[in-house]
Amino acid sequence: MPADPLSIRDAWSKIPSPGAVETEFERFTGKRMERILAIVVAIGSAALGAQALIAAIGTLSSADVAHIAALVVVFVPLAAMLVACLIGRGVRVASGVFAVAYVLALAAWPVIVDPADKVAGDQPWIFFLVNIGVVAAMLAFPVRLQFAWAIGMPFVYGYVRLVQGEFSREFWVTTAFDVSFTLILGVIIISLGWMFRSVAAGVDEARGRAVASYASAAAAAAAEEERMAMSALMHDSVLAALIAGERAEGERARELAVAMAREALTRLANTEGAVAEEGSDEPVGTAQIVVELRRSLSELGADAIVEERGGIGLIPGRAARALVLAARQAIGNAVAHASGRGLHIVAEGHGDEGIRVTISDTGPGFDIEEIGADRLGIRASIFARMAGVAGTSAIDSGEHGTIVTLGWERS
Fold first, then answer.
1. How far is residue 172 CA from its own chain's centroid?
2. Over the stretch 42-90, which tens digit does the pLDDT of each residue have?
3. Helix, strand or coil for residue 327?
4. CA–CA distances in Å: residue 77 to residues 71, 94, 176, 326, 333
5. Which residues share a beta bridge with 408?
6. Do 162 and 175 touch, CB atoms closer than 8 A?
7. Which of 239, 270, 302, 383 suits a disulfide with 276, CB 3.0-4.6 Å?
């Protein structure tokens, strides 16, 4: 069954124009990727943060004010970052605050830690948060700063640990292992984030190009459809009115010419409507189509017999309207190019299953292949019009004359 023209027009109206794609759709995949990264960071940071908090509480004493202050400076921004990542709001700001606060707390660690705590094998709780600081930088900063954080933070931690252990040999061994591990892991995290974002940006870019290309194609198709409809309208109504006016002889002929001109102007004024020239879709009977064909003959000043055959049935109004307009064009061609010689019209109904209309004349005929591309009387007003309602059309022309066959069958 053919698509509803109203549905097609409505769909095309929702396609953004080229160069005017809304910003919220331009980074569809990128936004989803940012959301996924934020949730993954929240889950991993919550696990490591809980581990660090338990270790910090186990080494905390009520008189250690500096240690308590360090806990507040580190874990309050961390909690805010976790909440922001989960709700998807303020992720960049909260992550940036934690990344900076953690670096400051890490740099002040030699002042915060108890000088008596110098066991090389005991990793301080702040070590568990090194890579959380890296992922916070990944969410908050540009790529260059992300790599700076991933590379610089392990060395800051290593330097702090060596200062804490007064650069003893035991601290060098354990610290070198910790620094190398966090350095490799941090660079991998930043690289993965950069790769995922690049892929998402590539998808968004390709999607934007595809939408722009499809919008251009849809706009071109809509413009061509409008051009064809306008050309058919001009050829069917306006040109027919002009011809009728030029040939009008007598009061009755002039009244008919005026009526045709008024109808043509009305249809031109209503071309913005979705179905201005197609009429209602209420079912139309074969008898009504015959009446319209006879009216067309009268308006065009042609003298012919309209023969009605077959059973009476109903077909959709748009199909009937297209059929009548295409037949009107064929009649007009016969009058204009064959002087209406031997004009004969047969309307053969097939009940509710369809209808076939044949317009024949005994004029000199013509070669369809020799008709110029800019001549739309047959291409637009007959072939395209019938194709638009899933109908059929055929023209057989030669020395014997011309036969135009129009048909519509219920699918």
1. 59
2. 998 898 888 888 888 877 765 567 778 888 888 999 999 999 999 988 9
3. helix
4. 10, 7, 28, 75, 83
5. 355
6. yes
7. 270
CA dist., res. 323 & res. 111, Å (int): 93
Domain boundaries, the chain: 5-211, 278-409
Residue 121: CB partners within 8 Å, gap ≥ 6?
170, 174
Contact of 335 with 301, CB cutoff 8 Å? yes
Dihedrals phi, psi of 393, to nearest 5 degrees: -150, 145
Nearest to 129 by CA among 99, 159, 90: 99
Report the amino acid identity of residue 163: V
In 81-155, the DSSP E strands lie at none
Place domain 278-409 in its CATH homologous superfamily.
Answer: Histidine kinase-like ATPase, C-terminal domain (3.30.565.10)
Going from the C-alpha of 171 to that of each of 31, 106, 245, the distances in angstroms are 44, 17, 107
Burial 139-164 (b: 16+ CB within 10 A, else e): bbbeeebbbebbebbbebbbbbbbeb
pLDDT digits (tens, 9 = 90+) for 262-301: 666 555 544 544 444 445 567 888 888 888 888 888 877 7
- Residue 189, helix vs strand vs coil: helix
